[in-house]
């Protein structure tokens, strides 16, 4: 993929913090920077709040860009802005950009949204056989309210986990690999979704589970879309003010209280890990990237090669 606003030097392989970054990974980063740029454009146009998140925020603070051994980009949005983005996405993100959710793809489940580039290839093994967009992606997470008591937190945690499991069973579970008990669950859910439309249940999951507690009226907010983690539950006041921080060739929104946020999530976040290597899972496990090939062409080539081998 061509990147006219990046220097030729950007694409050269180099060592960063003792970690070798290849030319291919630089090309992947270039695609991800373009996704961030497009995402920022749409959010700025519609006055939507967002923040760099996770490894992207850490990278901005500690490295001024990508963590050298990282291969993805993350942002997070308050619930009200996140919901608005879903409403305007179809009209704003044009080819090669694709706003991907469980409502835009028939055989896809994520609790969060992704922005992809259709003229590239980037997918996890779980999605290899699915007929969905498999371009390189930007993860878009959401900040929802977290209840104040341990009893209510545990109740909400179980509710979210139960409903996520129900939604994931439809597309992310292979029947032949299940034991007898789980096969019965699979069949029961198949029957359930013949009476309750999948899309309707997903919408209800967002409104009645993830967003059960108001972002505005709770003192604690967090990302509830992945596994339940106290380390990503923060004080709402930490996200009240913003600063713009350099991330490679971009300046993006970050919470002003980034120190407090990163400390809770990572501890001593400015310390470079001593065990940096390809096996310590500091990058996506089992992700296939091809920044130069549209995913449809990539899989067409694989299919043709498989046919020739036969």
Key features of this structure:
40% helix; 2 domains; two-stranded antiparallel sheet; 310 residues; 19% strand; seven-stranded mixed β-sheet
Q: What report would you give on this structure?
A:
The protein has 310 residues and is α+β, with helices and mostly antiparallel strands. The protein has 2 domains: 14-146 and 219-309, no CATH class; 148-212, no CATH class. The protein contains 8 helices and 13 strands. It has helices at 23-45, 54-63, 79-92, 150-172, 180-195, 198-210, 258-266, 295-309, and strands at residues 14-16, 19-21, 51-52, 74-78, 97-100, 113-117, 121-124, 136-146, 220-223, 233-235, 242-247, 250-255, 287-290. Strands 3, 4, 5, 6, 8, 9 and 10 form a 7-stranded mixed β-sheet that branches. It has a two-stranded antiparallel sheet with strand order 1-2. A two-stranded antiparallel sheet has the order 7-13. Helix 4 packs antiparallel against helix 6 (198-210). The longest helix is centred in the first third of the chain and has 23 residues, at 23-45. It is globular, with a radius of gyration of 20 Å. 31% of the residues are buried.
